[in-house]
Amino acid sequence: MNLLRRPRRLRATPELRALVRETSLGREDFILPLFVSEKVADREAVASMPGVAQLSEKALVEEAKAAHADGVASVILFGIPAVKDERATQAFAEDGVVQRAVRALKKEVPGLVVMTDVCLCEYMSHGHCGVTRFAGDHAHVENDASVELLVKTAVSHAAAGADLVAPSDMMDGRIGAIRAGLDAGGFTETPIMSYAAKFASAFYGPFRDAAESAPKAGDRRSYQMDSANALEALREVELDVAEGADLVMVKPGLAYLDLVWRIKERFGLPTAVYCVSGEYAMIKAAAANGWLDERATVLEMMTGFRRAGADLIVTYWARDLMRWLA
Ligand code: PBG
Fold first, then answer.
1. 312: helix, coil or strand?
2. How many domains are contained in the chain?
3. Which of 40, 169, 236, 269 would bridge 129 by S-S if both were Cys, CB 3.0 to 4.6 A apart?
4. What is the pLDDT of residues 110-165, one digit of tens each?
5. How far is the CA of 135 from the centre of ligand 1 (A)?
6. What is the CATH number for 180?
7. Quick check: is 305 in a domain?
8. How far is the centre of ligand 1, averaged over its atoms, from the C-alpha of 204 (Å)?
9. Ligand 1 atom 14: the closest Cα is on which residue?
10. pTM strictly above 0.85
11. Does residue 7 belong to any structural domain of this protein?
12. Which residues in 8-144 belong to E strands, given as ranges?
């Protein structure tokens, strides 16, 4: 054939492919989620998330130290309190599980960026992300009352020394309220990473085992977004940016890559994607069956997130990735 263009020329050898590769994975691109629990003595494996465990404060420090030594630059903390109630009191308690964990990590693992997930679901006896009134099976989550508690929670995390707070609740107006609360508390330098486009998703199933945060009645569809809506996601991000978000996140990842792309293009802020528990569980399960090559699949998926525009990826594979990318 007489072809002027032969795209395969640039694919002929590993060296040529490396030369023209458009997307790279950096070891600092990954955020490791960690679960700290007041109820476990050491570590309690999460059955639906092989390799993930609920950790005592001591085990958390060990895990974070080891992860940091491997090259993990940042972690995001989720707390499981011993006591839950209908006001999420332990979410903003000065000696709450996350507040104590943050202090321990800042002391014991210098240089590790410690982020906190700001939400109420793990601390509410009913498992919803805010103050909730029940009418039979219907759960009404009150926006403004919830925002007040979220502000207290975020400020308490910053006071404990968190490097960044990440609200994941999807209440309206919470980014502006948290920004104002942080500023009033003297935490003008604490950045907010907003879970700005967070969808009501079936992919969160395993996480709710890990965080013990499944709603006892009803679902999250009245506050998390409908998976069919992209324009609404752009409006959500626009609001959070106007309210002061420093970074924005899309969650889940795989099924929402169009939004990573559109949000990055439109707003140009540092953009994160959360590769959630269900995405982890399905590849783990397939790999355990010998149906997928875990390393190759995960690297391809992470490259896809980066190619779609994600600067940062929250992933339970963060430690494995340090090894794979070393
Ligand atoms: C808290 C929160 C959830 C996740 C992160 N923060 C669960 C939910 O909204 O139900 C899910 C993370 C994952 O599935 O890995 N609201």
1. strand
2. 1
3. 169
4. 999 999 999 999 999 999 999 999 988 788 999 999 999 999 999 999 999 999 99
5. 25
6. 3.20.20.70
7. yes
8. 6
9. 204
10. yes
11. no
12. 30-37, 43-45, 53-55, 74-80, 113-118, 131-135, 138-142
